Protein 1
Amino acid sequence: MAKKGFKEYMSRHYRYFIIGALFVALIVVLIVVWVRKSDSKSAEDENASTIPELETTVDVPKDKYEENAYPDVNSLVSSYLGAMSTGDTVTMASLSSSLSDDMKAFYEAQAKYVGNYSNYNVYTKKGPAENSYFLLATYDLLIQGYNTPLPALISLYVCRNDSGSLYINSESLSADEEAYILELVAQKDFADLINQVEMDYNAALESDSALSAAASALKDEINKDAQEILVAKQQKDLEDAAQAEAAEAAAAAAAASSQVKCTSDNVNIRASASTEAESIGKTKTGDVYTRYEKMENGWSKIDYNGTEAYIKSEYLEPVESESSESEEGESTGSSVANLKPGDKITVKENVNVRKSASETGEKISTAYRGEQFELVALENGWCKIKYKGEDAYVKADYVE
C-alpha cells in the first residue's frame, strides 16, 4: 500500500492500540511492517516521523520517550496491568474513562490463558492535553503451563481529572488529540521500541517450539471464549431487562388497583376471562378483592389468593365509594361506649383508617368488615387503634 494507507489505517484503528494489547505478535506486526516500508531517506532528524506525508496542525514535540520518569504514571500502569493479568475488568474500568463490553470479555477470556505479568517499563511522552501523557508500557507475561516469559507492550493515553487523579483516557478525544497521538505513533522511536519488543518476542518463541505453537493457537481460543462471555452477558442483560420490565408493570398495576367487594354468593372465580375457563373458586357476599383491571369485555382481573383471576364485573362494586358515603352519612350508632383500652374491636362496616381523629385526616388505608384491632383509646367518637404497629384512627360508629 502507499504511505497514505498507514495514516488511514491508524486513523481508523488507533483507539485499539491506545486502549489495549495482547501479545506483540498479535497487535504490532502491521505497524512494524508499515514503518519498515517508509522512506528511510526522510528520517534525517534523529526522531523524525517515519511517515512524512502524515500532516497535522498540532505542534508535536520530537523529544524521545522518557523511561520510568513519572512515579504516579508508573503506579497507574502497574495497577492497570495487574488487573488485566487477572481479568479484573471492574478495576480496569475504574482506572479508565471507558471499557466496552467487548474489551471486558476479551480481557476476562485472556486471563484464563495468560498471567504473571512482570518486569514493567513505562516509556512516556507529554500528551496533547495539559498534564497528560502518551506512553508505551512493556512487560513480560507467561502463557499458562509454560515458563518462558514473552515480551509484550500496551499503548495508553493518560490524563488527569478535575481532582488531579490520573486515568486512562480511551474515549472523547478531540481532533487535535487524535492528530497529536497519530503523529507520535509515526515517530521513529515508537517504531524502534516496537521493533525491539517484537524481536525479543520472536526470539522467545524460537527458543521453545511448543510455546510457539501454543501462542499461535491462543488468539483463536481467546476470541472464542470472549465471544461466549459476551453472549452470556448479553443474555443476562436481556433477562435483567425483562425482570425490570415485569416489576415495573407489576408496580404500575398495583398503583392502578382498587378494592372491590362481591355482591353475590357463589359467583365463579375463573382462571381466565371466559365463562368456559376453569373455575378456581366461589365468592361469598361481601368478599373483598384487589381489582387490577376492569376490562371492556365485562370481566375484572383480580387478585385471588396471590394469583391473577377473573370475575364478572357485574358482581363487583367499589369498596371505597361505600366507605366514603357511609363515613360521611348519618351515624349508625356507636356500640363501643363500654369498651376500654386493650379490648379488641371488630369492624362492622368498611371504614377509612386515618392518621388523625378527623374526617379530613390523611387516609392510611381501608379497614374491612370483620377485621379486628386493639383499642388504644376512645377520643370524641373515634377509636384510636394499633394499625400495622402504628397509631391510627377509625370512626367509632363503624366498629363494635
Note: The longest helix spans residues 209-256.
Protein 2
Amino acid sequence: MGINEFDALKPKVGRRSFLKMAAVATASGATVAFGNEGVTRKATKEEIKNPFPGSTSVKTICTACSVGCGIIAEVQNGVWVRQEVAQDHPISLGGHCCKGADMIDMVRSKVRLKQPMVKEKGQWKRLTWDVALDRIADKMKTAHETAGPDSAMFLGSAKMCNEQAYYFRKFAAMYGTNNIDHQARI
C-alpha cells in the first residue's frame, strides 16, 4: 500500500463532530461529579493509622514460586485482611511480583480448593485426607504392579526447596523410575 492508501483508512473526525463529542464528554463528567457528591468521606487520622483495629501483623512467605519473597499479612479474627511487602526481607528486598501482590486474593478466593475432592457419578464429593491419600497410594501401587514403574511420571514444582526436591527424587527412585522432570519445562 502506498502512503495515500493508508490515509484513506484513517478515521476522519470533522471539527463539528469533535466539538459535539467534547460537549457530551463534558456534560457526562459534570453529571458524574454531582452524582458522587457526599458518597464518600475522608478517613479519620485513627483510620489511616490503624484501618483494622485489633489485627495482628504476621511475617510470612509468598508461596507463588520458589523465590520466597516476604509478605507481612495483617490478620483480624483469623482472616487475612490486608498485606504489605516485607521491607526488611533478605530475598525480596521490599518488593514482589504481581503474583505476590495478589497472594491475598488467592488465599481468600471462594473457588480455592481447601479439602480433597473426588467426582463420583457427576457430583463432587469431599474426602478426608486419609481416604484421599489411601486412594492415591492404591492407584500408584496398582499402576506399578500392572504396567511397571515407568508408567508413572513425577513432576517437580518451583515451590519446592532443595531438600524437598531431593526427597522427591529419592521417592521416584524408590518407586523404580527415572521419569522425573520439572514443571518449568512443560
Note: The domain at 52-108 is CATH 2.20.25.90 (N-terminal domain of TfIIb).
Protein 3
Amino acid sequence: MSKVRVGLVQMSCTSDVASNIQKALQGTRRAAAGGAQIVCLQELFHSPYFCDVEDFANFSLAEPVPGPTTERLGSLAAELGVVLVASLFEKRAPGLYHNTTAVIDADGSYLGKYRKMHIPDDPAYYEKFYFTPGDLGYRVFHTRYASIGVLICWDQWYPEAARITSLMGAEILFYPTAIGWSTQQDDDTNREQFDAWQTIQRSHAVANGVHVVSVNRVGLEQEGAMRFWGGSFVANPFGSLLATASHDQEQEIVCTIDLAESDRYRTHWPFLRDRRIDSYDPMLKRFIDE
C-alpha cells in the first residue's frame, strides 16, 4: 500500500479525565469518518498537562500500559479499522513511571509501546519529577497500513532519535506533543519558538526521507503558565507542509501521504548513501573537549 491517510486529533484538556478520553474517542471517530487509517493523539491526551507543577497527587493519573485505556482504544480501533497512536502516563511499578505511547493495530491488537527517551526539566515542564527515561530503545511498529516510528515531544529536538528510528525502517515518524508559549512572553519570542519547533521536525523529514506527523495540544489549561500552540502538521520527505492545524482551535486533520515518495527523495537526495558512518564515533561523547 503506497498511499495512507493519517489523522491528527488536536484538542484541549480539562481535569475531567473521562471527558478528555471521550473527546479523544469522538475526534478519532471523526478522523476515521474522514478516511483516516492511522490516527495519532497528542501527548498525555487523557489529562491536562500536569507537568507544569511538581505535585505528588498527579501520580494518581498514571495507569498500566497496556491497561484500561488501551483496552478501550483497542475496541475502537477494531470497530473503525484504524491504527491508533496513543500517549499515556504509564505506571510501571510502585514509584516507577514513564511517559509512554501505545500503538494499537487496526484489528484492535496491542502492538507495543515506546517510552519517551529524552525527559525535559524546564519552567512549567517539570517532567523529570514524574518520568523515568525510557529503557525500551527506539521502536518501529509494523501496522496494517505502514511501518511507523513513534517519538514523544522533547524527543523531537534530537536528530539522533529521528535518524535511528528511520534507519530501523520507519516510513512515518509520529510525534505526540505538548508544547506551548509562556503567557509571559512577547510575540516575537513566541513566533521564534514555534518556527524552531516546526523547522527541526521538518528537517528530520528531509534528513531521513520520511514523512513526519506532529500532533500538539491547544489552549490554556487550568490557568497554567503555558498556552499550547497547536499547529499540528504533516510534512513530506522533503519537509514540505502537507497540512497544518490552527494555533487556537480544536480540530481533526486528515491528510493523504504517499509512502513511495521516500524512495524518490532518497534516490535523488542520497543522504543515507553518503553517510560516513566510519567517522561518527565522536557522537557518543557528551562534548568533545580539546
Note: Residues 166 and 208 are 6 Å apart (CA to CA).
Protein 4
Amino acid sequence: MKHTLFEKIWERHLVDTLPDGTTQLYIDRLYCHEVTSPQAFAGLRERGLKPFRPEQITCVPDHDIPTLHQDQPIKDPVAKKQVDTLEKNAADFGLAYYGLLHPKNGIIHVIGPENGLTLPGMTIVCGDSHTSTHGALGAIAFGIGTSEVEMTLATQCIMQRKPKTMRITLCGELRPGVTAKDVALYIIAHMTTGGATGYFVEYAGETIRHTTMEERLTICNLSIEMGARGAMIAPDQVTFNYLQGREFAPQGAQWEKALAYWQTLYSDPDAVFDKEVSFRAEDIEPMVTYGTNPGMGVGIGQCIPALHSIDEAGRISFRKALDYMGFLPGERMLGKPVDYVFLGSCTNGRIEDFRAFASIVKGRQKAPGVTAWLVPGSWQVDRQIRAEGIDTVLTQAGFELRQPGCSACLAMNDDKVPAGKYAVSTSNRNFEGRQGPGSRTILAGPLVAAAAAITGRITDPRTL
C-alpha cells in the first residue's frame, strides 16, 4: 500500500490505537510559551510528576512580551506574572528556556526552524494554533490545548484521532509582486475558513517546489485559517540547504544518517488523499482582506463582493463584517485610508519579509499619518536586519525597528491598534478586536504593507 507523507510520519510515531480509534501518538518536540502552559505545569506539580523527556521541550515567552524596553521590568502585571511563571517552571523542571533578550528569544514558530529545533519527520505540538507553521519542513505539527500540553509534558505522547488528508496542488509561476502571503490568502478566500476542517493538508506542485523555506513557513502558518488541523510540505533540497549547519540540526555522520531518512519523506506517486484541490499560480495577485475573517479576501485591484453574490445563509454575517469594518458591498479596496501598518508575527516576521518591505520603502518616506510597527520575529532576524543594512534603509525612510515578540498580532501587550483605526497587518487573523478593542484589520503581505506605509492608503505595490 502506498502512503502519503502524512501517513509515513504518523505511522512511525504511532504508539497504540484504542478500541474507539483514538491514537496514542509519540511527540518529538513540545514548544511551550507563557500563555497556555501555566496550568499544565501546575497539573504536573499536583500529581507529583516531572516532564518525561525534558530535553525535547523548549520554553519561550513571546505572546505578551513588550516590543520596547525589554531590558526593563514588564509593566503589565498579568504579562509579567505569565513570563515569570514560565521562567520558574523551566528552571524547576530543567527545561531549555530562552527568555527576554536571550539571543535565541523570539516568536516560538520563528525560533524553532531557524535554530534547527524543528526537523523533517518530526511530530511537534504547542499550545498555539499556528504550530502548523513547522510543517513547512516536512513535519506533522499542530496546536493543542492546555490539558494536552500537560499530557505531553508527562508522557511525551498525546491522544489524537487521525485526521483526513488533503493535497492542495499549485501549478505555474507566480507573477512579480505576488508573495507567499498572497498565495495563502488566495487559497483561504477560495476554500473559505471551514474548507479544510478535519483535514491535514499537504501542499505540492511546481509552484511550491520553487518557493523558499521562509515562503513555505508562511503558507503552512496560515493553513489553520481555513480550518485545517495542520499543513506540511515534503522536504527537498530547499529544506536540507536551509537546515544544514543550524545549531540543533544533526551534524557530521548524524547529518548523513538523518538526510537518508528525510529523503524518503514524500507522498508516494500513487498515494491516495481523501481530497484533492488545485490552483493556478498565475491567477493570484496581491491580496487584501475586507472583512473579519481571513477568508474574506480579494485581489488588491478587485472590489468587495456585491451583496447578491453572497449566498443567503451568509448575508447576515457578511453585512455584520462590513458594518464593523466601515465598508460597503461593491467598493474598491484600492485607495482605502490606513492608520497603522504592522510588519511581523509568526506569519511574516522573518528576514525575507523585512527584505521585501525594505525593497518598497527604500528611497521613500513613511506617510506622516501612519503609525508603523516593524517587529522582527526573533533576535536572529534582528541581527540579520542589521547585518544587511536593512535597519538603515528603514530609518532613512522614517521607520523604527522594535524588539522581537508577537506584538500587534493579538495585542496581548502594549501594541494595540485603537478603536476605529485601520491597520494593514502582515499577521494571520483579522477577527473583531484582534489587534485591539474596536480595531479594524486588513490582512496583507509585506509588499502591500510597505506600499500602504508610504502612501497612507491601500496601494498596489506593483505600481511602485
Note: Residues 5-161+243-257 form a domain with the Aconitase; domain 3 fold (CATH 3.30.499.10).
